[in-house]
Amino acid sequence: MSEMKDFLSPVRPTWCPGCGNHGIWNALKMALADLDLSPHEVLLVSGIGCGSKLPDYTRANGYQSLHGRTVPVATGAKLANHALTVIAVHGDGDGYGMGMGHFVHAARRNIDLVDIHQDNQIYGLTKGQYSPTSDHGFLSKTSPEGAIETAVRPLATALAAGATFVSRGFALDPKHLSRVIQKAIQHKGYALVDILQPCVTFNKVNTYDWYKERVYKVEDEDDYDPTNRERAFRIACEWGDRIPTGVVYQVEGVPSYEDQIPALEAGPLVKQPLQRSMEEYEALKEEFV
Amino acid sequence: MVTNDMSFLIGGDAGQGVESSGAGFAKALARGGLHIFAMQDYHSRIRGGHNFFQIRVNKRSVHSHTEAVHLVLALTEDTISKHTESLVPGGGIIYDAEVEVTEKELDEKDIRLFPVPLSKMAQEHGGAEVMRNTAALGAAAGVVEYEIDRIESVIRDNFRKKGEAVIENNLKVAGAAYRFAREHYAAEFEFKLKTVDAPARMVINGNHAFALGAAVSGCKFVAGYPMTPGTSVLIWMATHGKRLGIVTKHTEDEIAAICMAIGAGHAGVRAMVPTSGGGFALMAEALGLAGMTETPVVIFEAQRPGPSTGFATRTEQGDLLFMLHASQGEFPRIVLSPCTVEQCYQAGVRAFNFAEKYQCPVIVLSDNYLANSLRTLDHDQFDFNQVAIDRGAFLTDEDMENLSDAYKRYAFTESGISPRAIAGHPKAVYSTTSDEHDEYGHITEDAGNRVKMMDKRMRKLEEAARDMQPPELYGPHRADVTFICWGSTYGPLREAVDILNEDGDRANLLTIMDMWPFPKDSVGQRIDASKRVIIVEGNYAGQLAELIRMCTGREIEERILRFDGRPFSPEYILQRLKEGE
């Protein structure tokens, strides 16, 4: 059995004391250990930002890529070796700002990725600018009169794009979050995990207390049915006095992207021989004659 | 009578099948043992607008088109007015007999008019006017007294999927037009084609040659966003993906394309992105990611004129300095700039070896003229048995099993190349980052480590330089003029050099095929040993001349530059040379 400590790298986190990333990190390690995955079976792909440093602190295969480009890098790695458990982990600026296009396309593509967004509704590493998920009117260094745009609703966006697994967790409840991440890993296809994560240094509005007063678990509701897309869409749009967490939507049995590629029928690309027989290549010349 | 040395031009509207008819005709000529060079000229639109396809045919291997044309196949009136000036004395125009042509100007130039009832024949013998193109090709073969069975064999192949009836109808139309043209016009046309005994040759363009090389070299992952003139590589790979075990991904944008290729490369698969300059501009940041994380990736860039959208369907060599300098910071890259179709194939093979051996991005720089122009090549010019896969310091499962200490992905080595493990083995678990990192791949801002890591990465170019092919000298060792060029300019320039040398050792040509690391010693020495140096490039600034000055300190003042979107031709180069003297 693997344990949480198997996933500890020699590098200690540099996140602020009290940062939501500590809880997310623990929940992720817990999920990997509970699923009995080993570090070499997992590839963590991140972008750039506070939360994207997570692979550096975690003993697993890791690739910290570019800001906003987490999902395409993860997609390429998954298509090259679909035997790996590939987990994208990045912030709201990375995933919903610069990476918004990739997010929507990954969701409709149903590539078998876990897409974790550490969503703190602010830019932390660049020291406090508003983010795509900052609420309307949010005051920050780049929105001194208040944010003008409507905030992105990631769960609704993912659902509209055709995602087959849509969920949310809360950094202060790592046990619940860990169960959500486990389900996301076990889901075959694209799985969004949006994580409410207070930034204790720069976001003085969306604090632990602010979230605690609002979050509820969808599975505690009497009429919980994650397979009902219309209902899930209503829940996904909730933001205000009540903020849903848990698996909001899941449909199983939809073939994943990589399952439908003929070239992958023979197994992971990386395990296939580099070359075909010379006769096969020689035959290609015929189309030009 | 002139045999086996002429040019055809097929002209019409976009959507009339000018390109497919031309390519079919080129194949028919190649099947008769003749060499061809064919280029297309088209507009960025789906219907209408004047397009043409030009085929030069010869008994010897030819390297470019010529301005001079001997027989025009006009599918529209526009074609006649636009291309009369290219016709040589004694040349002819095949056109639909329904079109009125004023003969005065043509008479003065000694141009023969060959009206053929193309539409009528298509209707009568094939039952559909759309077969006019077939009629025109049949008529062309008749006028030059070429063997009709070569045309027939291409018709059979091209229409195979459409069924026997379509094949039969097209054969009837071609035969009727052939007989008509041969009977009425062959006697007054002095340019003829005769089949020659030769082994079957391929008719292939630079993009397909590159794709073939990449496939044989074990490329398994291709991600791209369609952009002319790079698109045909993506399409060829998608078409053959199932058969060859290649994953192709048409992505949401070019940033996703290169990031996916980098992800695949990191996971251990040979990966590439085909694109053009605008697409590459979007990839610039990720190029640096590959450089920093030492991830193998191949970028195929077929240039077209910029800036911005520029000329979507035309040619230029304006991206050289951009390719050499794109992305922030300093990191090693390799740039190959093939000059011929066969070199495109070789670049396809070599690029993937270099990318893995040096663990860095490798750019293959082509252009529209090379991407789309067809040439005849012997089968053995693509000798697949000669392809040797070199993955460099790639750790096998067995190597990883034998690792005793914690794995250092970026171990400091003499060559700068660190043994590379891929994700999936318990003894080689590591994390890497686009941040500066230590030997293990962990983030560090240590100044000493930074210097050592920069040195390590950049040192890889020293060995890579030894893998580069030196510039090639064509023509006599000593000559009055030494031309210097790169990329597709080689073809027409080589033909111009041949013309100049018909009476004495007047010119030679130095071609740079492997652009970076730059072959500064050999280029510098050649310049010093030359009496007069002229650079010939398809851009405004003389970018290779600037690069040569940067790397060698030699200034080349004489420059023949072209940036009107049209390819060089031998005649154009000789004319510019004359103007400069």
CATH uppermost class of chain A: Alpha Beta
Count of discrete alpha- or pi-helical segments spanning 4 or more residues of chain B:
20
Greatest chain-chain contact: A-B, 58 and 70 residues
Shape descriptor of chain B: globular
Query: What characterizes the major β-sheet of chain B?
Result: 8 strands, mixed
Helicity level of chain A: 25-40%
Q: How many structural domains can be distinguished in the coordinates of chain A?
A: 1
Give me the secondary-structure category of chain A: alpha/beta
Name of the CATH architecture of chain A: 3-Layer(aba) Sandwich
State mean pLDDT of chain A (0 to 100 scale). Answer: 97
Indicate the proportion of strand residues of chain B: 15-25%
The name of the CATH topology of chain A is Rossmann fold
Q: Kindly estimate the percentage of residues of chain A that lie in beta strands according to DSSP.
A: 15-25%
* Morphology call of chain A: globular
| Spans where pLDDT lies below 50 across 5 or more residues of chain A | none
Largest sheet of chain A, in brief, is:
8 strands, mixed
